[in-house]
Amino acid sequence: MTLDDIPAVHGIERSSFAVPWPDDAYRNEIVTNRLASYVVARVGDEVVGFAGLWVMVDEAHITTFAVHRRWRRRGVGQRLLLRLLEISNDRRAREATLEVRLSNMPARRLYEKYGFRPVGIRPRYYSDNGEDALIMTTDPLASAAMRERLARLQAALDQRPIDLDELREPDPDAERYRG
Is 74 helix (H, G, I), strand (E, B) or coil? Predict the structure, then answer.
């Protein structure tokens, strides 16, 4: 993610979350937070998704994750998640963790597919409605099982390119990945 990507990221954020991050948050993360890594997914010149993480000591914490409504269920979120896990591994994180709304079943299924498992609850975590967050964590990123899982999922994605001709109308019930 670059500073030039922020307006597009804000657009996706506002359409995806009831309580978006403040306008200066991404700028501050990119410019001043050495723990942070933020990425965007592009189709042509269009930013269609974004995700971010912090690597603190030996733990990667996914901070945000969203895909534009028109691009959901097309593999964009999976590609973003794989990239975050790759960055985590490159930065020598032992494991990755995140919070997700208990009610966000599409996101929970995505995370489970990529090796995250429930490890706890953060009561009343979300300020918009007081919903609890499910804490999810991976097994060790360097383990053979995790490396094999990610390689298999990457290979499957490589066989499934994004089809630009099949854009569909936004689905109001489609998933949001950041709780």
Answer: coil
Look at residue 176 and tell me if it is in a domain.
Answer: no
Note down the domain range covering 114: 3-161
99 is catalytic: yes
Cα 138 to Cα 66, 93, 135, 145, distances in angstroms: 20, 11, 10, 11
Q: Pick the closest to residue 40 from 79, 86, 87, 1 (CA basis).
A: 1
Q: What is the pLDDT of residues 41-97, one digit of tens each?
A: 998 899 999 999 999 999 999 999 999 998 888 889 999 999 999 999 999 999 999
Quote the pLDDT of residue 74.
86
Total domains in the fold of the chain: 1
Q: What is the CATH number of the domain that holds 21?
A: 3.40.630.30
114: annotated active-site residue:
no
Q: Are strands 46-56 and 59-67 parallel, antiparallel or unpaired?
A: antiparallel
Gyration radius from the chain CA atoms: 16
Q: Give the active site residue among 26, 111, 114, 126.
A: 111
- Active-site residue, selected from the candidate residues 13, 29, 95, 99: 99
